[in-house]
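Incident log entry.

Two folding requests arrived from the same account within the same minute. Monitoring flagged them as a possible duplicate submission, but the sequences differ. Recording both here for audit purposes.

Request one:
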Amino acid sequence: MATFNETITRIATELRRSNLTEDIKFAINDAIKEAAQSRFWFNEMLVNFPLVANTESYPDINTLVTIDAVYYNVGSTRYNVDPMNFLDLQDRANGNAQYGLPDFYSRYEGKIYLDPIPSVAGTLYLRGHGQLDPFPFVGNDDTNPWLNEGELYIRALAKRNLLRDVIRDYGEARAMEAISEDYKQQLENATAEKSSTGEIRSTQF
């Protein structure tokens, strides 16, 4: 797996630019931020946070771009929590807070709201895809699967960013955009092959 510093050095060599280290750092992190908007097999994840009795809202899991499933367990029974528009969630309460086991959730204003409000403590699990830690890259040895499975795609996106935003070579930037799209398609094809239906969807762990 390549490190942040190794990727910086390689991009500088490929572009024959030895004076753009700081710009390359920004370009790589911007590329990763963009790539995280798409689903690949290596950026699917399961995260969780504790449910607190009588607490309606929780800080959003910002690393998740898309939430595929939300659930919690009571004993050996799994209970799914379905998505709902925030205004509809408010209308359900009709001004009177309801307590019990959550049936619905909504993402709003950087928080996750549950309805009914949990009446017991527990753990809420969320499956989806999104940003991988660490992010942004800072240290020379920072790395994650974006610089392994997604390395070709990230490197192409970063070079496109540099060519477009720093070097101002728009023709080469367009060419690198096409190359990055090809790498993205390869990753999407590989993701599809790893699913049982041929569709890009959340992996069942």
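Request two (distinct sequence, not a duplicate):
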Amino acid sequence: MVYRYTESDLLKFPQKYQRTPFEGIEFINNYKNSRRVILEDIKSKIDVGEISDEIRILSLELDKKSEGDNILTKEFLLKCLSQKEKNDEIDNLINKLLKKFEINKKIFSEYDFRKNKQSEDFEDMQNYILFALICTTKFHNTKNLKFLNTLLKLNDIICSRINSITTSSERSLVFHVLSFELSYIEELLKMKIE
């Protein structure tokens, strides 16, 4: 058995994860092995950098700024990752983005939450990587499983498109989000066993 959720491009062929039966320990082992293969591949090709350094690099590369009611997703996600203090408005927008993602398994490049609209572009992998990093932080801080659930789906998409992720900064962040995800799953499995 293979971990089937990353076998095809999940942006072209979205997985809804509805009514998915639990496939036992073999499924969990296949999932972990598929993630480890990607981690090993990344580590063999680049020197994995610190998260804060990679965020700084991506922030410097940001080429557009939000105007009006529209939110440029990449700018917003980078701002979230740079913030040090709790901000209810940002938390509210993160939850809106999470709900939008859960509905169609896509992150669009631009949103207008007031008009419930978004752009048509959803293929920028940086947005998925940055949102996955936010979900790791949110899960770590809150232990709210909705963030882990979304993280798993985001990482499935990222893994299904790993060959389209080419910059060292992006690959380094993918290494971190996959590592965090695996450690969270290992923790949950230990709690279940004990």
